[in-house]
Amino acid sequence: MSQSIGRAVEILRLVASSTDGKRLVDLQRETGLTKPTVHRILNALRGHGFIDQHEDSKRYTLGQEISMLGWSAGHQAYDLRDICADNMVEVAQRTGDTSFLSVRSGYDVVCLDRQSGSYPVKAFTIDVGNRRPIGVGAGGVVLLASLSEEERKDAYVAVKGRLDQFPAIDLKAIRHAVDRALDCGYALSNGFVLAEVRGIGVPIRNIEGRTVAALSLAAIKDRITPERLPELLTVLKAGASQIEQRLAAAMQSKVRGASKA
To answer: Which residues have C-beta within 8 Å of that of residue 61, sequence separation ≥ 6?
Structure first.
């Protein structure tokens, strides 16, 4: 049973990672499962409204039930994007560069928000709502570094075959970036996504000390230099600290509300 659930979740995440949907053959190749197994899981997910199939293209996309579950979750808990909104804007304004808010979803990283600064050359390395393998980009390195050693080993295995669309990076570079982040307390992405772009990121932790998101920024390489790095880190860490304070207040408010119910 647990294996079937795990496979279904993996397929859901793969479907979510594509903006135009996935074909059956795509899902079969990316999961390594047999065609009948993938087809059976898809049919089960369709039956519950988690997956739709477009008649013309035969591609699978997320179903309406996923949106409904997300809506329900949003009304039961705090909205991380709302909590971070002011600091996302502030980081972009103070640095002039592009700020990103990222969260982990399995072995993917999802961009929750992006704000651009005043510098005319933008570094839009990922769009809001899009996914990419964990470890790609500064936010992805932060989130990968936050995992336990055993979880990181599993993550390296999971992303190894998914780096074809990122020719400037390989598993060795990701491992090195994660080790560096563990030593330094922040992540550096040097051309991981786009050759002429650098990124830096810091963790956002909840009241229990667990990393729940990454706050990062990206800019052309000339703007993230060793000389400017301390200034940028100060802005990022200040933003992350303020977010953590609001996050703690939101969680405490939620607990108080639950105790009164």
So the answer is: 15, 18, 21, 22, 51, 52, 53, 54
The string of pLDDT tens digits covering residues 25-73 is 989 998 889 999 999 999 999 888 888 888 788 899 988 787 767 756 5
Q: How far apart are CA 46 and CA 42, in angstroms?
A: 6
Cα separation, 168 vs 131, whole angstroms: 18
- Give pLDDT, residue 76: 46
Owner of token pair 């996935």: 22
What domains can be seen in the chain, in order of their start residue? 2-70 (1.10.10.10), 77-256 (3.30.450.40)
DSSP conformation letters of 44-94: HHHHTTSEEE-TTT--EEE-HHHHHHHHHHHHHS--HHHHHHHHHHHHHHH
Dist. CA 190–CA 72, nearest whole Å: 39
Three-state DSSP at 154 gives helix
| 92 vs 100: CA distance, rounded Å | 9
Parts of the chain with a pLDDT under 70: 1, 68, 71-78, 253-261
Strand order in the sheet with 211-220: 131-133, 108-115, 98-105, 211-220, 197-205, 187-190
Structure tokens at 129: 């709502």
Distances (CA, A) of 213 to 26, 41, 124, 183, 223: 29, 30, 19, 19, 24
Separation between Cα atoms, residue 90 and residue 251, nearest integer Å: 23
